Here is the input.
Amino acid sequence: MSPARPLRSKQENAFSVPRGARLFVGDPASGRGLRIAIAAARFNDRITARLLSGAFERLEAAGVRAADLAVAFVPGAFELSFAARRLAASGRYDAVVCLGAVVRGGTPHFDYVAGEAARGIARASEETNVPILFGVLTTDNERQALDRSGGRLGNRGADAARAAIEMAHVARSLPGRKRA
Ligand code: INI
Here is the structure.
């Protein structure tokens, strides 16, 4: 095998791949021409509004046009997968970002909502063959959620938006059927 070459380009990372290997990569900073849909939960809207702002800022910085964006609001994280599946199955979007905040309240409800949201989103992505990103905070309290929605620990909405751009490119480049 010929010597490995570092995989750096625009993405800073630590990977090396053998020369000649086929690569499927996506630049998360390059969103021009991509159509992105967002499903946002209204529950804990003090948090999810911050996730949504972070996502918009990141998408705009990457060159995604407002006319190529769509946003669906749903009551809570439990309903995110329903909206995400419909958006993905429409064939209009290159990726869908799900934004929500599930805050543990000392009841088993947290586990059902958080678990089903994650499961439903993963299943919707598999079944529609469209990248659907998990920008759902699952935290013990509101402080932790604020820290991760534009506070001292970043913004998971922005992270999910960035991942959506990367996955939109990766999905376009990977072999196989584009849509289910
Ligand atoms: N929905 C959330 O998005 N976050 C939560 O923390 C939450 N809690 O704790 O109950 C929550 N519940 C509502 C749920 O997502 C559904 O909207 C509701 O059960 C109706 O199906």
